[in-house]
Amino acid sequence: MKQLKTLFLALAVIGIISLISYSFYSAYQPKPVRLQGQIEAQQYTISSKIAGRIDQVLVKKGELINKGDPVFTILSPEIEAKLEQAVANKEAASAMALQSVRGTRIQHIKAANDQWKKAEAATHLMEKTYQRVQSLFNDGVVAEQKRDEALTKWEAAKYTESAALQMYQMAKEGARSETKLAAAEKVKMAEGAVAEVRAYAEETKIKSWFHGEVSQILLNSGELAPQGFPVVTVTDMQDMWAIFNVREDYLKQFRKGDRFNAYLPAIDETIEFEVTHVAVMGDFATWRTTDASQGFDLRTFEVEAVPVVAANKFRVGMSVIVEL
Question: How does pLDDT run across 92-120, given as a tens digit for each residue?
Answer without folding.
Answer: 777 776 766 555 566 666 777 778 787 78
